[in-house]
Amino acid sequence: VRWPKKIQPRRDEQTLVSSIDIAPTVLAACGLKPTDAMQGINLTDGKALEARQRIFGEIFEHDIQQMTDPSPSLRFRWVIDGAMKLIVPHKAREPKAPVELYNLAEDPTETRNLAAEQPEVVAKLTEALDQWWTP
To answer: Which structural domain, as residue segments, surrounds residue 72?
Structure first.
């Protein structure tokens, strides 16, 4: 984001952010409040950024099957907690895909799957993912 005299240019590879944060941030910059239904946080709110522990997301097929129910098009769900990223396939859509766990601080290109080595982390993050959304 470029906003001369308002936001100092910098690079931050530690703070968890998501594309759902763009709308609340732009609204705040315009002096408006997001609706209660909007997800995401204002990226200029340092306290909100510090309080965020995890971000969640999903990957769908290119063409959605049902507009009112996204689950039939779901391929993967994921969560990032600190440096750890868990990717869980939807078994009905991706039956051969493995559960994947990566340490993004040590392996930012996600080449070494740690799921078999760290089952306790997989279990903890899967529980968080299921609390967020279970299709």
So the answer is: 54-132
